[in-house]
Amino acid sequence: MPQPKPPSARPRPWPALPLPLLLLLPLLAACKDEVQAARPAAPPPVSVIRLQPESVPIRTTLPGRTAAYQVAEIRPQVSGLLQEKLFREGMAVEAGQPLYQIDPAPYRAALASAEASQARAEAMLQDARATTSRYRPLVGQNAVSRMSYDKAVAAQAQAEAEVAAARAAVQAARIDLDRTRITSPIAGRTSRSNLTVGALVTASQATELLTVTQLDPILVDVTQPAEALLRLRREIQAGRLQREGEDAVEVRLTLGDGSEYPLPGRLQFAEATVDRDTGAVTLRAVFPNPEGMLLPGLFVRARLEAGTAREALLVPQQAVTRNTRGEATALVVDEQGVVRQRVVETERAVGSQWLVSAGLAAGERVVVQGAQRVREGVKPEVREITRQELEQGGGPALAAMRARG
After folding, report:
1. Among candidate residues 395, 368, 257, 235, the one with its CA nearest the CA of residue 307
2. Among 13, 30, 82, 283, which residue has the fewest nearby CB atoms (within 10 Å)?
3. Which of 131, 160, 179 is a domain's end point?
4. pLDDT tens digits, residue range 151-172?
């Protein structure tokens, strides 16, 4: 059987309050609410950044593809039997390095025949000169007729022409013999060979033997809308942007996998015409490629500096909102500590900030945190922070705002 609890363990009843005190409790609670309602509310806390003019590099990111700096299609310039392949497919070759050897025997024979013809023509020239030399003094003595002398002079001129033709034939035969050894006209990397040893090739045939591609440096062709290029030129002419020159424009690459190419390039030129199909202008940049990382045909994104905006004002993007009319607006705290709303004009995004061209002035304080707590005409509790503190999470100002709720 359960044992009864001792009297000390039983709960004590609440003491009974007098009836007049019970009637006063609602009145005391009402008075407390009135006192709390009459107490003035604390001003809402906001964080602001003071705008300072600065020089801002304006960068443009454009899509593009890589292209080989030079491509040489190797074709034979003489006909014959392909006797030897002197390279390994895919290897790097230097300018003038031998690639193929065509059977040189027929061309050596042709050169020997041309040299013999040249020797015969030179012998005939020597005889013609001797005859002319003998006839020259005899003409004055009437020992030789004038007609005979004239024929000797003409024969000498004909012999000189035959010697010149024979020398040209020897030179042509030597060139053909040299062309039996096919060399690379440029430095680059070889492709696969389309023909093997033993194949019969013909001069200037349609099918190339192989291609040699120069990869260092390498080209990057990017496209920019014509309207963007015109706007950029107007800003430069108006003085809002400054550029040192086309040769000074540095270009950076982002590869297809999102990685950054480590070496910078330089803008080479811009096309003088607009593509009718796309309405874009092609820009070409040159990049060093010593390791061969970039191959022709890769899709890349090129980031180039369009110019430098002097005395520019940058506003964090979280400080700019849209009103019901779709206009960009920002809240500022004036010198009297009152919140004012401004309609601003944003030109472009620069990282996580807007480049503002109108609506704000240097030295003004823009609300970057707590904008949802205030409205125009309110005097908030203002805490000025730096841009670095904002990027790091707001610093002590934001911590104080969170503590106050």
Report:
1. 235
2. 13
3. 179
4. 999 999 999 999 999 999 999 9
